[in-house]
Amino acid sequence: MEGKTTIQVSKKLRDKLKELGKKGETYEEIIWRLVEHYEKGKK
Fold this sequence. Notes:
- The chain is mainly α.
- The chain is 60% helix and 0% strand.
- It has 2 helices and no strands.
- The protein is globular and about 30 Å long.
């Protein structure tokens, strides 16, 4: 089982993540999607 941690982000970034997220998507899901997109672009 993976542990959880807390990261602090500005309210501006939090709001941007909310904009980028799909309905019902968690912050973790949004961030993973962004990371995967970034990694695909690096290849």
